[in-house]
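Why do we care about 3D structure at all? Because function follows from shape, and shape follows, mostly, from sequence. That is the central idea of this module. The next example makes it concrete: a single protein chain, its amino acid sequence, and then its structure expressed as tokens.
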Amino acid sequence: MLFMVIEHFKNGDPAPVGERFQSSGRMLPEGVTYLASWVDPAQGRCFQVMEAPDAELLRLWASRWDDLVDFEVIPVVTSSEFWTHY
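And the structure:
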């Protein structure tokens, strides 16, 4: 399954997230794959596309960051997949 993850940096401050990432990496559990990300510096958000067999593994990953980030996790499908089954 694909997921759009929207991270909201607590206090609008990405610095602690960057520091942890530099020291510990993404800290993904086995079975979760990072695909791509984009940052909205004006709003203190990061948008990530992740792949995982279910949302539970993403909750485990988010728990490793939730002191620094508030998460929205949204299941998504590709446009072509959606329109094939619509």
